[in-house]
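Hi team,

Filling in the usual template for the complex we talked about on Friday. All components are listed, including any nucleic acid strands or ligand strings, so the model treats them as one assembly.

SUBMITTER: L.P.
PURPOSE: interface mapping
COMPONENTS: three
RESIDUES: 971
SEQUENCES:
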Amino acid sequence: MLVNLSGLKNVGLEHFLIVGAILFSLGIYAVVTRKNAIMVLMGIELILNSANINFIAFSKYSTADLSGHLAAIFVIILAAAEAAIAIAIVLNIYRNFLTVNIDEIDNLKR
Amino acid sequence: MSLFDVAFYVLAFITVGSAIVVVSSKNIIYSAFALLFTFFGVAGLYVLLNADFIAVTQILIYVGGILVLIIFGVMLTTKAFDVPIKTETLHVGPAIVVTGAIMGTLFGVILKTRWFNVLNVQWDGTTKKIGERLMTDFLLPFEVASVVLLVALLGAVIIARREKVKS
Amino acid sequence: MNQNTLVLLASISLLLPFLGFVLLIFFGKKRLPRQGDIIETGFVLGSLVLSFIVFFNKILYFPEPIEWKFEWVNFGFVENWGEMKVTLGILIDNLSATMLVVVNVISSLVHIFSIGYMKDDVRYSRYFAYLGFFTFSMLGIVLTNNFFTMYVFWELVGVSSYLLIGHWYEKKSASDAAKKAFIVNRVGDFGFFVGIMIIWASLKTFNFGEVFAGIEQGKLSGGLLTAAGILVFCGAIGKSAQFPLHVWLPDAMEGPTPVSALIHAATMVAAGVYLTARTYAMMSADALTFIAYIGAVTAFIAATIAITQTDIKRVLAYSTISQLGYMTMSLGSGAYVAGFFHLVTHAAFKAGLFLGSGSVIHAMHHALHKIHDHHTDPQDIRNMGGLKKKMPITYYTFLIYTLAISGIPLTSGFLSKDSILAGAFAFGKLSGHVVIPLIGFFVAGLTAFYMFRLLILTFHGEPKRKDIFEHIHESPKVMVFPLVILAVLSLWFIFGPNPFDASTTWVEKYIHKPKSVVPHDQQFEFNLPKESVLVTEYEHALHEAHIPAMLLSLGMAGLGILFAFLTYQWGKISAEKVANALKPVYTFLKNKWYFDELYQNTFVLATLGISRFARWFDLKVIDGIVDGSAHLTKLWSFSVGKFDWNIIDGLVNLLAYITGFFGYITRLLQNGKVQTYIIYVVFAVIVLFYIFLG
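RESULT (copied from the run log):
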C-alpha cells in the first residue's frame, strides 16, 4: 500500500476528508454501541455532518461550483425532518414500552 | 504554517475532540452539549471552506433546531430526578473492531487516491448564487424538499400526539 | 245482462270473501275497526247479493249452462299423449247457481250470528278471516268446471275446516279433532285423486263436459269407468262423512258452534253430495248401487248412534251424518233431484239447528259463568230442560227446524224427504235392493224420535239444574235474527206453492237429472228410455210410489214423535228401563259402534307397528350396513394413516429437521437488536469495499 503523504504538508482537501472520516467512524460507533435511542440519533447526526463536510470540501477543491453546497442544504433539510420524525417515534416508543433502550425493544425477534 | 492551517487544526481538534466526548460520555446530557461543540466546529470548517451560507444554516438548524429537539427528547424520555441520566453501552468490542476497520479503510482510500485537487476557488459571497441556482437548476428538488418538510411536520405531530384516552 | 256479465258477477262473488280474508289476516287484529268483522260480513253479504242476481238471471233467462274457459297451461305436443294442456274455467248451470245461493245465505247468516257468539274471543279477527277463506273455497268448489280446480278447492276447504275446528287449539281435544278431521279426509281425498288421475290418463282432460263427452264416445268404459266413479265418490265419502270415514265429523264439534253450523252441517259436508251430483252422469249402475248402499248404511248407523248421545252438538252431528247418508242414498238410487233438493233444505234447517244449539250453549255458558261453575258441561242436555220459558224465540225456531228434519208437512223437509223416500221405494221395487227403502223408512222414524228427544230434553219439562236455569237469558238480537231467517227458509212456501207436492217446487222444475253418458250395458235397464213410451220405467215407478211413500214416511215420523213424547215428555216409557233391558245394544250404540276403537286398534296401531318395524329395520339393518362400511373404511384409513405417518411424514420431517438445523445456526445471528444488524451491515460494506476496490 503506497500512501502519498506529500499532500498533507499544506491543509487541503485530504485534511477535510480525514476529519469527515473520523466523524463518520465516531458516528457509526455511537449508533452501534449506545443503548439509548437518542444517543443513536446523535450518532446519525454526526454521520450526516461528516457527509456534509465532504460535500463542501469537494465543492471548493474539485468542482469549483456550488453543487456541493446545494447538496449540503438538502442534506440539512432532510436531517431536520429526520430528527423531528425520529424524536416523535422515540416519544411514542417511550409511551408504549416505558423505555428508550433499543436493546429491550427486540420485537423483531418475535 | 499559515493562519489558515492554524485555524483548520484548531477547528478540527474542537470537532473531533467534542465528537469523541459525544460518543464516549456516559451522561447523555454531556453528550448533547458536546454535540453542540461538534456542530460549532463543523460550522467553523465550513467557514474555512468559503461556505458562509452553509455555515450559518448549520448553526441555525443544527444548533437552534435539532440539538434543542434532541435535548427535549432527552428530557421527555428520562426520569431525570431519581435516576442518573446514564446511557449504557453494548457490544463495545465488535463495535471498536468494525469502527476501526472502517476508519482505516477510509483513511487508506483518502490517502491513496489522487484527488482532483488543483482548484482553490474563493467566493465573495455564496448566498446569492445558491439562491439563483435553487430557483433555476434545483427548483424541483427544492419544491420536493418543501413537501417533505411539510409531510414530516404533520407526521411528527401525528406520531407524537397523545392518543385520546379511550373509555 | 249477457253471459259474460254473469260470469263476471259470479267471479266477483267468489273473490269477495277472499279479499276479506286477506284484509283481515294482515290487518284485522290491530288496524281494522271492530277487528274487521263488519268488513268480512259486509263482503259476504255483497257476495250474497251478487249470487242472488246470478241465480235469478240464470234460472229465468239462460236455460243452457254458461261456461267460461281459459287455457291455463299448454305443454305443447307430448309423446304418447297428444297436445297436453289444462283448461280451467267457471261453470254456471242451475245446479251451481242454486248451490251458490245456498252457500252464501248460510255463510252470511253464520257471519251475523258469529258477531254475537264469538264476542270477546281471543282470536276474533282470525276467526272471521278463516270464515271468509272457507266461503271462498266453498264457492270455488261450486263454480268450477273441471276436476283440477275442484280438487284444489276441495283441499282448501279441508284446510279451512282444519283451521276452524282447531280454532281453540289450546284445548287438546280441539287440536286432536282438527288433526283427525284432516287426516281422515285425506284418506278419502286419496281415492278422489286416483279417480281424477284415471280420468286424466284415459280422457286427457279435466273439464266436466269434455269428460262426459269422452265417456259417451266410449273412451272410458267397463270396470275402469266404475272404478273411476267409485274413486271420485271416495272424495265424497271423506268430505260428506259417509261410512266408513264418518268418524271425524262428531269430533269436529270441538270447533265453535257457528263453524259447525256452516261447515259441518250445511255446506262443506254437502260438498261431497254436490260432487256426486256433478259427476252423476258418469256413474255406472254398479257405482250407483255402491253409492246407494254406502248412503243407506251411513244413515242407519248414524241415526242409531244419535239416539244415545247426550251432548247436544253430537246428537246434531250424528243427525247430520244420517241426513247426508240420506242424500247419498237418494243420488245412488236415482232420485237425483230429490237428493239435491234435500241438500238445499237440509242446509237451511240443519244450520238453524246448529245455530239454535249455539244459542242454547251461549246462554248456558254465560249462566255457568255467572255462578262460577267451570266443571259442568254447557253442552250436555242432561243439565238443561225447561228452557222454553227463558228462550222463546230460540225454542220456536228450533221447533220448526225439528219438524222440518222429521219430515212433517208444511215444512221444506217434508217435501225433500218425501221425494227421497219415493225414489228409494221405486229403486227397491225395480232393482230388487229392498234393503235400501227399508232402511230409508226406518231411519225416517228414528230421525223423528231422536230429534224430538233432543227438543224435549232441552226445552220442555222441568229444569234439571235450577241454579243454572235462573241465569239463562235469551240470546242477543244479532244471534236471534239468523235463527228467524232460517226458520222462515225451512217452510214450504220458499220452494213451492203446494206443501204436499214436491213436483211443484222450483227445484224440481229447474234442476233436471243429467242424461247418463255411461254405455247402455252398464246402466240400470229401468233407467233406459223406451221407444214406445215417453217416460222411463223408473220415472213411472217414481210417480206411482209417491203417495204410498208419503203416507208411510208420515206414519214413521208420527210413530217416532209419539215414542219420543211417551218416553221423555209423559214418562210412560222409562228410558232407563229400556236401556237396561237392551244393555248390550245400548252400550254398543252409546260407544258409537266402537268405530273409533276399531280404527285405533287396526289402522292407527298398524301404522304405529309398521313405523316401529321400519324404525327397527332402519336402525339395525340399514344403519348396520352403513356402520359396516364405515368400519371397513376406518380400517383402511387406519393402515393408510400408518403409512402416511411413518414414511411420508418421515421424509417431510427429515427435510424439516435439516431446514430447522440451518435455521438454528442462522438464528444465532438474529437477536432482534437493531444495532447488531448494523454491525453486520457495516462489516459487510467493508468486505464488499475490499472485494471491489482492493
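MY TAKE: Chain B touches chain A through 85 residues (CB under 8 Å). Chain B has a mean pLDDT of 84.

Thanks, L.
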